[in-house]
Amino acid sequence: MKKDFSKIFQIAVVFIGTIVGAGLASGKEITQFFTSFGLTSFFGILFCGAFYILMGSIIAKISIKYSLNSYSDVLKIISPKFVSEFENKIMNIHPALIPSFCGDGFYGEKVHQAVIDYGAKVSGATVHFVNEKADAGPIIMQDTVKVMDDDDAKTLAKRVLEVEHTILPRCVKLFCEGKISVEGRKVRIK
Length: 190
Fold this sequence. Notes:
It is a single chain. By secondary structure, this protein is an alpha+beta fold. Helices cover 57% and strands 15% of the residues. It contains six helices and five strands; from the N terminus they run ααααβαββαββ. It has helices at 2-22, 27-66, 71-77, 80-85, 109-118, 153-176, and strands spanning 91-94, 122-129, 139-146, 180-183, 186-189. The strands form two sheets. A three-stranded antiparallel sheet has the order 1-2-3, covered by helices on one side. Helix 1 (2-22) packs across helix 2 (27-66), helix 1 (2-22) packs antiparallel against helix 6 (153-176) and helix 5 packs across helix 6 (153-176). The longest helix has 40 residues, at 27-66. It is globular, with a radius of gyration of 17 Å.
């Protein structure tokens, strides 16, 4: 039971993160979550929701205090030792195909506008492990979307977000099931 609750908690955290960080989850995602994990998932969602509110307020205070505007700004104030303690345990999702359009200054709609301005034919999303550099950890999974001739940053972002909603939960599930291993920069999925 304890192992099941731990798994539900981990998935619920990502589920809440998807809702808070990337917009509302689809009805299909919500139905799948509750169908898969039953009543316990409801309590997991409530607990994780409260946890996210608490963590969000702490992060907001730190962001204001240190004038943090992006993920790379956060990495500048976090000790590399702290990050290395959690090597290959913290995941991040980036709205482009790393190693392109990533790193310092590439966040939000800036990423999508850069893809369009460059004339790229495809974009997508990347789930990767966090290391001491922005968007530089080992890549776990990527998926692509076609860049349309009439795309602007908002329309491209919308399609990339759909991919993000698919690959991040998949990666977390694989991680929780112990199906991800890392050898140097290469991530293997069993």
